[in-house]
Amino acid sequence: MTVSVPLDARAGGPDLARGIALLGIALANLVGWLHGSAWTALLKQQDASAADRVVDVLLALLVDNRGFPLFALLFGYGIGILRRRSLERGERTGRFLRRMLRRFAVLLAIGLAHAILLFSGDILVGYAVIGMLCALLMTRGRVVLAAAAIVTLPALGVWGWVDGTVGLGGGTGYAAASAPDYLAGVGIRAPDALHGLLLAPIEEIGLLSPMALGALMARGALLEDVPAHRRRLGRLARWGLAIGLVGAVPLTVVLVLDPAHARLDVEVVLGILGVLHQVSGLAGAVGLAAGAALLAARWGPRPAARAPGADGSLASATAT
């Protein structure tokens, strides 16, 4: 049985970062409910008003492809915490994996219900499938996790390629969003959801890169033990946020100056700009997580000290 950690013993950094990530995901997915106007880069509308374009620019620079890598990183960080606490309790690996399987099975069921009943852009199915893979790799050691983060990074870039070139395809929105009634929308979403489930190990494998990175960070309690990692967190925050912002600029410029791709319609160029936007978003996610940990340590309540475990190790005072 998993024992909940008291609120005053939680480290505020991961919780603050999760809040930022969820806000970013919500803002980024607003475009999923817009339809009837041709898409441009990052699923924005080509004929947006001036006010809408200002919002588009802010989202493209600060939110798009930044919120979900941050959430995936923290998802992996949470798996890492659970594994660390499991080891501190002396739990066997098989028992840990069975417990993770139950958790992710519930998440998968919730994700399927969400994808079929409410929203075509559901992410929970992918998180359930890839999260279980991350938990399995977590039991195989640091080197395997690091290799997984590196090997799957190009898959993350594929999503960026799509974001950069989506305006060339003539799309005008998710089909279910423009369905004539709710049941018609369900009829569109249901086969898409089942198709997504079957292909999740392939289509969603890009999530493993930030998840594995987060799991690696959790091994050393990077976002929890701020005093021990303050200098490293400071460097990660500065460089990560800077890279995340600079990497978002080129595709954002295209969004502003040529949303209809009247001058720049070369797929390779737009794809590369999309990959840059996406991959730099992972750096930005690391910077946001590090910055949140520093802010929480400075302004939030101090978590209770971690007490020595029965085996002499430190028992984690954080929870997911």
TrEMBL record:
<feature type="transmembrane region" description="Helical">
    <location>
        <begin position="144"/>
        <end position="162"/>
    </location>
</feature>
<keyword id="KW-0812">Transmembrane</keyword>
<feature type="transmembrane region" description="Helical">
    <location>
        <begin position="57"/>
        <end position="79"/>
    </location>
</feature>
<keyword id="KW-0472">Membrane</keyword>
<feature type="transmembrane region" description="Helical">
    <location>
        <begin position="100"/>
        <end position="117"/>
    </location>
</feature>
<protein>
    <submittedName>
        <fullName>DUF418 domain-containing protein</fullName>
    </submittedName>
</protein>
<dbReference type="InterPro" id="IPR052529">
    <property type="entry name" value="Bact_Transport_Assoc"/>
</dbReference>
<feature type="transmembrane region" description="Helical">
    <location>
        <begin position="20"/>
        <end position="42"/>
    </location>
</feature>
<feature type="transmembrane region" description="Helical">
    <location>
        <begin position="269"/>
        <end position="296"/>
    </location>
</feature>
<keyword id="KW-1133">Transmembrane helix</keyword>
<feature type="transmembrane region" description="Helical">
    <location>
        <begin position="236"/>
        <end position="257"/>
    </location>
</feature>
